[in-house]
Input
Amino acid sequence: MLYIQGAGVYTELHLKDGSTAIHNKTLEHLQQLLPPHYDRIHKSYLVSMNEAREIEIEPGSKYSLRLNNEECVPIGRTRYKDLKAKWFS
Output
């Protein structure tokens, strides 16, 4: 699994093969069940940091995480510093 995106009371699981599956648990609940290499990088995203390649800084103080498959997911501004210190120092 590459990342999980919150979708209300459901979540979208974005898989390595490019497919998407819907799960009936919230991000908060899944975060408690997943291994530690899954990190909350945004209020709506959990990402497998094993799939993370680099942080991209965009104009207007926006941040994205580029994955090994070239997909980008947003990083919350309040989570950027912790994410950078924990995984990219």
Summary: The chain has two helices and eight strands.
